[in-house]
Amino acid sequence: MRPVESRGQLIEVTDRGLYCPAGGFYIDPWRCGPGMRAVITHAHSDHARAGCEAYLCAEPGVGVLRTRLGAAAGPDADDDAPGEAADAGRSAAVQGLRYGERLTIGDVAVSLHPAGHVLGSAQVRVERLSGGGGEDRGKVWVVSGDYKVEADPTCDAFEPVPCHVFITESTFGLPVYRWRPAEEVFDEMARWWLECRQEKVTPVVFCYALGKAQRVIAGAVRALQRVGTGQRVGTGQAAAVVAHGAVMKLVEAYRQAGVDLPPVQHAQAAEVKAAAQRGEAMLLVAPTGSDHTPWLRKMGPVSTATASGWMAVRGTRRRRNLERGFVLSDHADWPGLLAAINATGASRVGVTHGHVDPLVRYLRERGTDAWPVPTRFVGESPQGGEEEERPGPAPEGPPERERR
Ligand SMILES: [Zn+2]
């Protein structure tokens, strides 16, 4: 471990990620190794890496983290078999901590607080206990991980945590990013679904398999009930929504954690095609990167869309040859970032992931002591992140293919 910045701080930046020397643990390390203890904000692949000795995460996220660590090798996008999570993740030492519960590690108290991003996502609160009698005693840092402030029925709502120093993400840290209410987006999605039924094609939504997929499943079914009066949501025992195996694994983890999702079944080509032919097309939810695969071609005639915050960026949809884009993000938009930062009351704000410089500049101009927190991903291709929404080097940002 080599601190590359801010030596002597409660949380330091090292070449393996954020490190708390007083507690001897990393937060979302991007490189794991033997003997390393990691506190994980959430199970997206650029925050949760396999190979550490022990993991601590919020209790509702234990199942998805185990699933993700087990699948770290990553199936191909068209490898569609669900329930084949490798055993590696199951055997990793993953400890759950209830939201708000305090755990003493070394000379710090650690607690996890809902970040509203995906199931089990947490902000990590670190409080210095004795501080060796120095001025650090009682100092509180909070590392946000990814977060959103908008309500999401599939995970606990973001909770502001008062602190002295707040390290915030900034994926969509530009004033142009302002999300419409998700309910409006889902209504739009449901109307498209109905159009697809009329045209006897299957609507396919590409999205991140962890978090966004479950939010889409919950939101789209609810919206179809709202806007599709008289439409059958499902046929008999059949679900109205079907999904790729990679999504199904995580749907199962969500259900096991007690999240109430509408019926969703593993997509079988014959059923998908037959339902579309009957004018009762099912919504097919598939992971980003599964477009243009043999798996998708088996599903018959489709209409394709992506659900992502990046759909707000002109050009993305065109370059990916998508028929539709639904602007739906699991990250805070610009007003959301500022509201969250203000709510912490923090006098110092570290900014990481995404549009760092504009947010740092804005905060400094209004008198907040803000600084950029480097990550491994700065200046790199976004293609390393399988599931995360991440700006690329070009202004238009979004990755062509999120999978490695
Ligand atoms: Zn994330």
Keywords:
Metallo-beta-lactamase, Chain A; 20 strands; disordered C terminus; Rossmann fold; alpha/beta; seven-stranded mixed beta sheet; 10 helices
Question: What does this protein look like?
Answer:
This protein is of the alpha/beta class. The chain folds into two domains: 229 residues, Ribonuclease Z/Hydroxyacylglutathione hydrolase-like (Metallo-beta-lactamase, Chain A), CATH 3.60.15; 145 residues, 3-Layer(aba) Sandwich (Rossmann fold). It contains ten helices and 20 strands. The strands form three sheets. The protein has a seven-stranded mixed sheet with strand order 1-2-3-4-5-6-7. Strands 8-9-10-11-12-19-20 form a seven-stranded mixed sheet, with helices on one face. The protein has a six-stranded parallel sheet with strand order 15-14-16-13-17-18. The longest helix is centred in the middle third of the chain and has 18 residues. The radius of gyration is 21 Å and the shape is elongated. Zinc ion binds next to loops.
Number of contiguous helices: 10
The CATH topology of the largest domain is Metallo-beta-lactamase, Chain A
Roughly how many Å is the radius of gyration? Answer: 21 Å
Any idea of the CATH class of the largest domain? Alpha Beta
**Residue share in β-strands:** 15-25%
Strand order of the largest sheet: 1-2-3-4-5-6-7
Structural class: alpha/beta
- CATH evolutionary superfamily of the largest domain: Ribonuclease Z/Hydroxyacylglutathione hydrolase-like
Query: How many strands?
Result: 20
Shape: elongated
Q: What does the largest sheet look like?
A: 7 strands, mixed
Number of domains: 2
Q: Helical amount among residues, as a percent range?
A: 10-25%
Low-confidence spans: 1-5, 73-78, 83-90, 378-404
- Write the CATH architecture name of the largest domain: 4-Layer Sandwich
* Helix and strand pattern: EEEEEEHHEEEEEEHEHEHEHEHEHEHEHE
- Termini separation: 27 Å
